[in-house]
């Protein structure tokens, strides 16, 4: 019945579920400890060069090529050169738990010369897909870097209006590839324009004016007082340090300059070409060095800025007009914080948050030189108005499954989980502990923290059901099903539609992805990135349960549904099919 499978990596759930279905594993040959170590070093280098967003590094990634000359038997593809990526102690533990009597080893020996018809690996490059037969099922597609890398998502989502009636600016924070000279200059101009808008916003806020209609509306707090209330944005400290003594005043001409800059930008936005290319006005007569110095004095040193009555009305009018043209005006806040990401690294490594243009350009200084390919960076607008829980930032890991690219067929997983930062959110301090929700980052701060809210779990993980209970407590019971989930689905469809023509659409393949989302104060989701090989490591009580379920339900969709289209698919729902 062709029930032979091969699994690369520590996936005991997949192995156990396939064996329960009567499948026999064709095990990979064990490599000696020395080749395994060398192979691990080669894989690490290759992973950093590829720059993928995969989580598989947490699961002992291995990348092995299968070449036609050495990996075929009788004209059939072979997995002989695919090394098992586990360290010896995990290999022994797995054997003890799953095969105490050695029965599976015996059956594996009997099928060692047979072709596996189900292949599950950590990375697509572990298998030469060109050598696979049409009836061999693989858990990867090729060329998914078009949306599963930071620079791929940044580059290709701009083309979404050509493929669908959707605006990526409504769900993906604007992003630039600093290795491209044109995009680098576009970022510089965007930073300056954002500075001008931020200056007007802060001037109004310090004058006690309200920006009606410009800010995101936070969820309504619970009617009952207690610790479960949503922290208002007004209680989030600014990056401006408290000042002692008299406050220096900036010249009133600075407001006039910011109004002129924003007015020119507004005029250019109203005449934007359908091409969707970068639209930034040529700021004739603007002394940017002088303007940015005064802007930094206001935002970082607390310098004051007095507004006349006429200027107040002008600021409010210009910002309201810009809000009609810029979907990100609310979430961008007024501190001009950007997040710099090295595209060749995963798990949050090398990511920096900053609110200074010079720092971005300094950190990514070599990305336009001859070594640009080895030093790619993307810079993205930071969501300064995130939805907080107990004053703490969080993001959501949301799984989805693609079973066909033509027609595009997407399954959405109804269960997901939240990852919290270990420190309270503050724009005064841009350290990773309060701004990067990645588990690999936050585990460095758990033991040393002390500022963690007492109602947050020690492992900093919630299930989406716990989140829904919290939303109900703060008066937003409908937000999850009416705003958040539909928004996440729309973002996933947008990202895949914009890259559908670039992906290798092999018919017998499928792939499970992990998308990371952040929610704004208005509960609207913002897509951060999409990961291949999302981690299945049981890092918490919640993830240990959910990761096992998503693997079980993936096999239901891929294997069981072939024989019984009406079979249950667990928490997977088919929500998009062309």
From TrEMBL:
It catalyses: L-glutamyl-[protein] + glycine + ATP = glycyl-L-glutamyl-[protein] + ADP + phosphate + H(+). Residues 28-92, 211-232 are annotated as: Disordered. Transmembrane segments: none annotated. Residues 41-52 have a biased composition (Basic and acidic residues). It comes from the Eukaryota. GO terms for molecular function: ATP binding; protein-glycine ligase activity, initiating. It holds the Pfam family TTL. This is TTLL3 monoglycylase. It comes from Ramphastos sulfuratus.
């Amino acid at each position: 019945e062709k029930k032979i499978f091969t699994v690369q990596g520590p996936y005991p759930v997949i192995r156990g579920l396939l064996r329960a279905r009567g499948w026999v594993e064709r095990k990979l040959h064990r490599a000696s400890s020395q080749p395994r170590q060398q192979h691990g070093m080669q894989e690490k280098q290759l992973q950093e060069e590829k720059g993928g967003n995969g989580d598989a590094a947490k699961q002992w990634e291995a990348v092995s090529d299968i070449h036609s000359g050495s990996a075929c038997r009788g004209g059939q593809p072979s997995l002989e050169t695919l090394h098992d990526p586990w360290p010896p102690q995990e290999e022994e533990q797995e054997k003890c738990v799953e095969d105490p009597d050695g029965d599976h080893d015996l059956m594996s020996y009997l099928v060692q010369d047979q072709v596996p018809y189900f292949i599950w690996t950590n990375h697509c490059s572990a298998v030469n897909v060109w050598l696979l037969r049409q009836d061999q099922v693989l858990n990867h597609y090729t060329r998914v870097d078009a949306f599963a890398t930071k620079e791929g998502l940044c580059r290709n989502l701009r083309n979404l209006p050509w493929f669908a009636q959707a605006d990526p600016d409504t769900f993906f924070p604007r992003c630039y590839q600093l290795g491209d000279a044109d995009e680098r200059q576009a970022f510089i101009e965007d930073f300056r324009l954002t500075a001008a808008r931020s200056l007007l916003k802060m001037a109004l806020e310090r004058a006690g004016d309200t920006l009606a209609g410009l800010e995101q509306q936070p969820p309504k707090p619970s009617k009952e007082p207690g610790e479960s209330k949503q922290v208002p944005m007004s209680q989030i400290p600014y990056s401006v340090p408290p000042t002692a003594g008299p406050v220096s005043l900036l010249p009133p001409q600075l407001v006039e300059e910011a109004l002129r800059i924003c007015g020119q930008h507004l005029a250019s936005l109203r005449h934007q070409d359908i091409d969707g290319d970068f639209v930034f006005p040529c700021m004739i007569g603007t002394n940017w060095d002088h303007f940015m110095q005064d802007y930094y004095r206001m935002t970082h040193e607390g310098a004051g800025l007095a507004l006349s009555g006429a200027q107040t009305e002008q600021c409010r009018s210009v910002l309201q007009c810009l809000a009609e043209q810029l979907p990100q005006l609310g979430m961008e806040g007024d501190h001009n914080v950007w997040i710099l990401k090295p595209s060749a690294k995963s798990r949050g490594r090398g990511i920096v948050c900053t609110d200074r243009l010079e720092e971005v350009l300094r950190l990514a200084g070599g990305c336009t030189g001859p070594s640009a390919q080895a030093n790619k960076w993307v810079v993205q607008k930071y969501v300064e108005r995130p939805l907080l829980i107990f004053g703490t930032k969080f993001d959501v890991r949301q799984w989805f499954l693609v079973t066909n690219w033509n027609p595009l067929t997407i399954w959405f997983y109804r269960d997901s989980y939240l990852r919290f930062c270990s420190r309270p959110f503050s724009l005064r301090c841009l350290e990773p502990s309060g701004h990067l929700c990645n588990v690999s980052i936050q585990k460095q701060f758990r033991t040393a923290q002390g500022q963690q809210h007492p109602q947050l779990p020690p492992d900093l993980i919630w299930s989406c059901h716990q989140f829904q209970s919290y939303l109900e407590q703060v008066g937003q019971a409908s937000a999850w099903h009416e705003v958040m989930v539909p928004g996440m689905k729309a973002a996933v469809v947008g990202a895949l539609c914009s890259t559908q023509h670039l992906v290798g659409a092999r018919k017998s393949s499928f792939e499970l992805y992990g998308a990371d989302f952040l929610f704004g104060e208005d509960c609207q989701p913002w897509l951060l990135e999409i990961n291949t090989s999302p981690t299945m490591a049981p890092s918490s009580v919640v993830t240990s349960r959910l990761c096992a379920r998503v693997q079980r339900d993936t096999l239901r969709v891929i294997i069981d549904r072939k024989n019984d289209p009406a079979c249950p698919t667990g928490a997977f729902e088919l929500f998009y099919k062309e």
